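Good morning,

Attaching, inline, the backbone tokens for the sequence recovery test we're adding to the shared suite. The designed sequence is right after.
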């Protein structure tokens, strides 16, 4: 049974290990504005603690909604913790059929693709997805041998930003050019290798 409640009365899970970036809250807020609530917020009965739907709750507060749909569940604290973890973890076991996804994004257009969390509404069409990459050994099979310096990075880090100002300061300090499309970068900035003067030689 689905009920409604003032979102300001709901209690976020204080021990929630899942981080919610501002970009995710904004994306869900856009989705709610366009489609409404597709799924209720799951709440522990009695305590009003949120079990599933923390991002939806944050988005509802951002939109200053006076009521949100909720589903109350009578669970112990331990079961509520387990369900909260499962709600996030189990979805990670699935993957995208990239060819089918690209076809759907192309059919619904850039604006709806952006609302759904893919691409950017400033583009005329969604950015096509790259073809699945096989293992490096399969990709190299049959290629002629050549020698080159080892250019592998010594370490890779994931850096998270919680405001546009922090991102801009990081770009300024490092001298890196970071755009909305940037997913990976390297430091220091090095020019791309020029292959126009390189040829493969068949040793046979």
């Amino acid at each position: 049974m689905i009920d409604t409640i003032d979102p300001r009365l709901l209690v976020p899970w204080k021990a929630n290990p899942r981080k919610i970036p501002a970009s995710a809250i904004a994306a869900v807020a856009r989705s709610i504005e366009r489609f409404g609530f597709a799924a209720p917020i799951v709440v522990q009965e009695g305590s009003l603690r949120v079990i599933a739907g923390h991002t939806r709750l944050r988005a509802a507060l951002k939109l200053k909604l006076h009521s949100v749909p909720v589903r109350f569940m009578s669970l112990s604290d331990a079961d509520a913790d387990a369900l909260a973890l499962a709600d996030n973890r189990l979805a990670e076991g699935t993957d995208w059929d990239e060819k089918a996804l690209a076809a759907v994004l192309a059919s619904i257009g850039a604006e709806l693709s952006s609302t759904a969390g893919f691409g950017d509404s400033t583009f005329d069409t969604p950015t096509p997805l790259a073809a699945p990459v096989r293992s490096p050994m399969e990709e190299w099979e049959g290629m002629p041998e050549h020698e080159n310096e080892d250019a592998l990075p010594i370490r890779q880090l994931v850096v998270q930003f919680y405001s546009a100002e922090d991102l801009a300061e990081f770009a300024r300090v490092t001298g890196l050019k970071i755009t909305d499309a940037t997913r990976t970068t390297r430091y220091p900035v090095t020019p791309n290798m020029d292959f126009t003067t390189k040829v493969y030689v068949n040793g046979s």
